[in-house]
Amino acid sequence: MLLPLLLLIAQDRTAVAPKAGPVLRDAERARAAAAKAAAAAAPPPGEPPRFTKCMDLATGDPAAAIDEAVKWGTDKGGMFARQCLAVAYTNQGRWDSAAAAFEEAAGEAETAKDGPRAATYWTQAGNAWLAAKKPPKARAAINAALASGQLKGLALGEAYLDRARAAVASGENAGARADIDVALAKAGDDPLAWLLSATLARRMHDLPRAQKDIAEAVQRAGDDVSVQLEAGNIAAAAGDEAAARAAWTKVVTAAPGSPQAAAARAALAQFDPAPAQ
């Protein structure tokens, strides 16, 4: 028999995290997005050595990169100096500062009439705001990226997914559902899209959808503890004690010191008899 209170504990503590392979957490996703943008960005015309130097510092010596980027910014460094500054802050885990610098880079790119880079910077700002636990600011940044009309294909799907993450973090489930469905169509290889969709479906009491989507997440990232924790939550909500126990046990075994394992242990405790008084 599943006890409702402990089931709610497991549900409320589910870690909803982000590509095929391990599901990246907010901070990891923001770092990966910043690194991807840095790798894709061409150096500014006429001054590639300075851009390359700054970006190398942003990875190897973020504090020095911040000094270099600030100096460069006062010397007409424009969006590239702001990008370097943002990446350096990202590598220090200074999420508010990183988000603000990415937004400044986006503004510089818009002034330079570089729409594709502006859209990319807005999405990086959104991810940094999510890592900073400020979903309203994240949504505003991602809205700017989407409004630009510059995002296509996978990048567009990921932006919708990020906006859905912001909506879920703000408790706005209906808006999140519409964005997740777009993300699934355009970025369906990202296990976070399926995990977030499954979690949202469970919270909205749509168990068939939750079961379908968590199966997709398991197929893509079955070893991830956030995926297994949610698989257990959904099985428990469906009354499948054996499947719930199996999924939660996998979480505890795979990552015993993690927050997900703590939630799984609390959920598993409902199966054990209370000690005699």
Automatic annotation (TrEMBL):
One Pfam family matching this protein: TPR_16
Membrane-traversing stretches: none
InterPro entries with a match to the protein in the record: TPR-like_helical_dom_sf, TPR_rpt
Source domain of life: Bacteria
UniProt protein name: Tetratricopeptide repeat protein
